Amino acid sequence: MGTTKxxxxxxxxxxxxxxxxxxxxxAASVAAYVASLPPARRxxxxxxxxxxxxxxxxxxxxxxxxxxxxRLDGRLLVWCAAFKEHLSLFPGAAVVRSQAAALKGYSIxxxxxxxxxxxxLPIRLIARLVRARIAELRxxxx
Length: 142
Prior knowledge:
Layout: E1 3-6, E2 9-12, H1 30-35, H2 39-55, E3 60-64, E4 67-72, E5 75-82, E6 86-90, H3 93-98, E7 107-109, E8 112-116, H4 123-138
Antiparallel strand pairs: 1-2, 3-4, 4-5, 5-6, 6-8, 7-8
């Protein structure tokens, strides 16, 4: 890894596969995305993916907006991503709203839940969020 000059100061260049915030650049495939993660983050991210697959049998995994996403019945179900300090699950705003009580203590925004790295992933909660999203997708009028 080389260095670059910033206003007279030298700093190490980030690898071309990384960007500020610790998230890999847009990946062409899920395998490429996962391979670009550091080992500890990769293990946690693989666990998140396993939980999603178990909660949504038949879901197909691919890349959407440069991050891994799962489709069910041809429709986007959830996105997920690994960052420097956390893993994110993107089930959509309606699921985050409907599950707000269960999400106390986690960092959330409109359609995103952030799970801190270094701790135990809340497997049951993640499965519950994915099932809630499936129910939303399959509800009449959707």
